[in-house]
Design goal:
- This protein has 11 helices and 12 strands.
- The protein is of the alpha/beta class.
- It folds into 2 domains: about 270 residues, Rossmann fold; about 60 residues, no CATH class.
- The longest helix has 28 residues.
- The termini are far apart.
Length: about 350
Amino acid sequence: MPITIDGGRIPNLLSRKMRARSPRSVGSRKNDADALRIALINNMPDPALEDTEIQFFDLLESAAGDVPLSLKLYSLPQFPRGDAGKRHLDNFYFGIGDLLNSRLDGVIITGAEPLQPDLRNEPYWPVLTEALDWAERNTNSTVLSCLAAHAGVFYGDGIPRHRLRDKQFGVFEYKKVRDHALTAGLADGMQIPHSRWNEVRADALASSGYEILTQSAEAGVDLFVKKKKDSLFVHFQGHPEYGTRTLLKEFRRDIKRFLKKERDTYPTAPVGYFDAAAVKLLSDFREEVVANPREELMAKFPEAAVAGTVQDTWQTSAATVYRNWLQYLISRKAEASALRAATPVARA
């Protein structure tokens, strides 16, 4: 069943994708009581705003099957934006006031690119924590992605994030370490993309009551959960929503930053992502760039040659977890309906 965008404010790229799949998917499902109402709070930087919309739309559509979904796009103030980003949010997103006056089945809060070692010094920290407080009381479940997961555990339980020696970048092997409704049907081993400079650690999470569901010997914890007031908080350190070529785009961006002297070192290529032939091409390109770094060398980046070699090895696992999440939302919605039906209506 197609996903609809609540309010009918549909970004251009997403609208074209939705129309290509089903003209019925474009619009609003305001009167469908059976639809799960989900918010996407998109905090990604301007260049990734539309990619992130499409990534989560694709993942939710893959997971939903016949479950009707109504998705509403939200933004939070104080996140750094350029003029184009502000126009995009003004045209297609709802603001913090609308969010704080809503009751929804679920919410997904994305990460952002961190600029400060201490998250409390980020300009958006107060409004992000306000959204986290709202989610505890006004949703049945909250998904926190990457930096949002770090912010959530730090704000809620004082768990610090730790800087890594290098970027955790690539596709990593994970194991299911605990049975849970969210991991039902998952294979014991799975692959998940990661792109982060920091981590939260298993011992700190476990000591604060978080249930760790998937873990990697190489890349640490990925999926972990904890009930907070009315909402089950679901945390991902990785990015199961990523598209097939998202890591390639990030790698190219980081190389460009190196050539523009916005970073000191040439970026490490994403591990577990390219085949041997692509690794050789990228290694040759790196040697040329490091020997004589010049911005114009980006024209020689072998993007077309390596793009066709990458594969989405995580889509099935990602869809399984999100399908289980949607089923959890359905069960909580049914419980609330049954409770209301069993509660006598007071007579005047």
